Amino acid sequence: MTDRVVAAFDFDGTITTSDSFRAFMLDAAGPARFALAALRCLPWLAGIAPGWSDRGRTKARFLRAALGNVRREALEAAAQRFVETRLPDLLRPEMLARIREHQALGHEVVLVSASPSIYLRKWAPGVGIDTVLASELAWREGVYTGQLAGKNCWGPEKVARLRGWWGEHAPATLYAYGDSRGDREMAELANYAWIRGEAPLPALAPQGGFAPA
């Protein structure tokens, strides 16, 4: 499809006002277990910013420290509760409006996030997003293993996931929306990229380009 237009949205800090994974874990584990897990994982958490710790492994380790050998059905239930009760307060109305703008123009909207898909896939259908490319948790016999299934969906992995998703049917136009270093490669791939804090959110033109200011 030569006129295919895709709009790829990061989630945390782009669609939300803050880190949804932290909020999800606080809701799922409770304050006491969350704090204890943070203390146990402090060396790895502190090592993320300077690049000493692997983001994906640290995320997986923290989830295991906070929730232990959690069963999938229990975490699915926690994810549903989070989406219904806590996540709505974190959403940016202007970004939800931007998603609707793309959809009204017939563009395909895809969520591309380093956060776990377990709650993103419950949220996305409610705003008309069919495709979620995100970090996946690993399970064994219905119990969380403490690891990710595959790579953390951050940085270069976002581009790999997008390319794997569209395969031989690359879009004629790609929009990318992000807010951090983890979105740089996706922004570089896009025809039109917007990074929070670098420019105002522009208007969309019907033909697929940004409208002039």
TrEMBL record:
<protein>
    <submittedName>
        <fullName>Phosphatidylglycerophosphatase C</fullName>
    </submittedName>
</protein>
<dbReference type="Pfam" id="PF12710">
    <property type="entry name" value="HAD"/>
</dbReference>
<dbReference type="GO" id="GO:0000287">
    <property type="term" value="F:magnesium ion binding"/>
</dbReference>
<dbReference type="InterPro" id="IPR050582">
    <property type="entry name" value="HAD-like_SerB"/>
</dbReference>
<dbReference type="InterPro" id="IPR023214">
    <property type="entry name" value="HAD_sf"/>
</dbReference>
<dbReference type="GO" id="GO:0006564">
    <property type="term" value="P:L-serine biosynthetic process"/>
</dbReference>
<dbReference type="InterPro" id="IPR006385">
    <property type="entry name" value="HAD_hydro_SerB1"/>
</dbReference>
<dbReference type="GO" id="GO:0005737">
    <property type="term" value="C:cytoplasm"/>
</dbReference>
<dbReference type="InterPro" id="IPR036412">
    <property type="entry name" value="HAD-like_sf"/>
</dbReference>
<dbReference type="GO" id="GO:0036424">
    <property type="term" value="F:L-phosphoserine phosphatase activity"/>
</dbReference>
